[in-house]
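Hi P.,

Sorry for the delay on this. The queue was packed all week, but I finally got your sequence through. Input first:
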Amino acid sequence: MTLSVSLALGVRTSQQNTIDAGSASARRAVELALALTDGTGAGQADRVFVDTRTLAASGTEDLDLAGALADAFGVAQVFARVKALLVTADAGNTNNVVISRPASNGLAIFSAAGDAVPVRPGGAFALAAGVADAVGYAVTAGTGDLLTVTNSGGTTGVTYSIAIIGASA
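Then the structure:
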């Protein structure tokens, strides 16, 4: 089985302003285009987990990147490195989807245990290692392999989609 990944993120802005002698404009862009081929080195990935999930009111789940997740063919995905992560929260959610590093065995995508980012309804959180980066974010079975996803509210469920791209070595 081979894997190829294409990730594109970007923000383009255009500002206009009236000044004394006419008008002025400014265009700016911040963009990332990431293409990964099959493998485990720099610019490569050979593991993928993509799913849409629902958490009950006040629900929490720990995603175990060292073997508890399966790909589209039901094959266990044992990550040694994460190269990209994308989480999108359903626009119909009432509560936030919170992505965090648990106090024990947490994946080190955040600086410290307990660090988190809320993904607001209709929003997204993305993280990517560059194509020249062979390391990415290390996954260590038993000590650094969990990603916690929490529903921030106690009255309604939340739905989110997640894509984890990585390497087996």
